[in-house]
Amino acid sequence: MLLQHAASAPHPLNGTVAEWMWLLPLLPLVGFVINGLLSLVPATHLGPSDPDVAHDASHGQAAGTNAHADDHHAVARHRFAGLTSFVGPAVLALSFALALAIFVEMRSVGEMHTPFIQQYFEWMPAGGFSINAAFQLDQLSMVMILVITGVGTLIHIFSVGYMQDDPGYPRYFSYLNLFVAFMLVLVLGASYPVLFVGWEGVGLCSYLLIGFWFNDKANADAGKKAFIVNRIGDFGLLVAMFLLAANLGTLDFVGVSAAASQLGFASVLVTTICLFMFLGCAGKSAQIPLYIWLPDAMAGPTPVSALIHAATMVTAGVYLIARSSALFSMSPAASLTVAVVGAVTAIFAATIGLKQWDIKKVLAYSTVSQLGYMFVGVGVGAYTAGMFHLVTHAFFKALLFLGSGSVIFALHRAYHATHRDDDAQDMRNMGGMRKFMPLTWGLMWIATLAIAGIPPFAGFFSKDEILGSVFLRARESTLAESHWLGIPGSTVLYAIYAIGLAAALLTAIYMTRMMLYTFHGPNRSGEDERKHLAEAPWVMTGPLVLLGIGSALGGWLNLPHFAHMLGPDELLGRWLEPVVGESQLRVTLGRVPEAPGNTELFLIGSAVAIAVIGILIAAFVLRPARLVPKREAPAEEGLERVLLNKYYVDEAYDRAIVQPTVSISRGILWRGIDQGIIDSMFVNGSAALAKGIGRIGASLQSGQVGTYAWVLVVGVLAILGAFTLR
Amino acid sequence: MLAEALLFSAVLFTIGVVGVLTRRNAIIIFMCVELMLNAVNLTFVAFSQAYGVAGQIFVFFVMTVAAAEAAVGLAIIIALFRHKQTVNLQNINLLKG
Predict the structure, then answer these.
(1) pTM for the structure as a whole
(2) Contact state of A706 with B24 under an 8 Å Cβ cutoff
């Protein structure tokens, strides 16, 4: 005890504001409780209490015109909307303020090499194995906490404007607060099981928010799809945890990192653990083959798409791999798998994004594609680059989603004012929105340039760092020396680099397409609607502006070395060094990879050239003026239709997995086992057995006293005989 | 003397058992039951000569109970006869399951 105490000097964060880190998830949880209680009060109804009556009346008056049939407009705003508007964002802002205070404290104590761990209670004692409910704070979780609470606060404020008139407003905010609470548990957890609590919790909140408008069956189905697909991934994460517990005897991040080298470099065991863990990440972060839920998840309110399905929850997989970097850097095969899956996902989703008409679907596939980039980054052992792209992506993708939300909001309001029932998310119904929403237009262009990789916007630096890391590691690293399915690692890495460049080209094309169709060209919404189009209120544009600043200047978080004249370089890299530095060096043969000056210039030049070419292709090939509104559009043909239908992957999964599962469940499990064996043998069989025994027993009871007397006498004689002869 | 008394009571008891088992008429069965009781009484009396007066006292108890049983039993048989117009036990199987 004494020795142990002497060995571990008190952590530098002891007694500082970091002691309050348990308050970070608790504050949103309090918000969840308050808003949840408010949501139990039903929304007030204005006018005729039955919306159908009002609907019929409007039909009668406006015979012939296109009366809108959207029922949820007939219900008024919730009576506690004002209180919710305050509580919902306020708890997040407090949490963000606390996170900032802790961050400042961490900066001031200097470099810390061990995480600051707080243990609360023993959660699962099982013999010699024990799991504590503990939170840990280190540089990696700090980055995530700042992104979650910072971007989260902005999106909460945006939601006030976007969702205020919804009758389920307090319910919406209670789910959103609960999500943030669980997300913070995920990144604060000091062990895999605590992380898993947050992991499952954010999955639950994602399900609840995707199906927020559950009156529409498609939305409820999308929620179920997200939930079920995520369960497949969670199975992988659970198996990885079991394997870790069985082989290392611990599930704490500190313990696992320390003991990871026992597993043996490139051993089958560590590869198995990493691959199962990656299955979990692929589920949560929407990678092939489990990406299918994310585009459907756009059924939720748009701020939800921004917060959960772009900025935070879907990046949990990237965080988990960075957190488990000690394991992944032990297994080149698993790392290469992560990178290959990421690269294939990046290009696959980008091609689908080329042909979507729903503005949110474009952004959804773009998110899948960008998550692929992050996995390429963490897969090749460039954990800093992956986390860097995670942060910048949180800025520009949140901005893109919120900007699209503001466009949808404006169009929706216009349709509402003119009582027209049309698709407010289809880009064919937009066009020329620049005139009506100049601020949103400008900010969206910043985000588009950022995601396309045009310097000096945020995405340029992060995407360039990922692609550069792939290129350098293809030349010399443990990954390049190993083999992946028999292919030399360096070949694989060069291929990943090429795919990454191709995906960057497609990214530039589809994002420019989205901007052209939405904001440029003639307006296609309709004569009457045009008068009602207007910029969103300040409560929505304010967060957009802040996110715009983040998208423009996010690159300064981790400037590459050659750009040191612009400011301090590699801030994030140095910040994360104590957490992932060792693992990164293991991948790069113990050296910090350095590229010769001209190679670096070539890499940057080709990345920028590709982005510019993409934007120019889109600008010259696409003709927004030729577009017609959705209702008049002809059906697509050939490859366009394949892309519009997302390569028919959903249909293929349906045939290959869902239908066989259903028919096996119905034919064998239900008809065969449940009805055939359990029902007929055990349930009805035991009844028949009891009945048969009863019938025999009943026939013994003849009611004849004489028979009973005989039996009695025979019995007495038998007993007497037995005693006598004994 | 004891041996003859025990033998006699055994004969009486067996006649009673056989009567209960073989006869159909409820009254006769009832009488056979009484016969068995009295066979037991005889045994008690026979043993009381050797082991003290307690056996004779017990006989009084048995006779009292037998008297009460006769009263109740005959009343049941009469009630049964009124109900079924017979005292033949083969025709009476109300306890059948």
Answers:
(1) 0.80
(2) yes
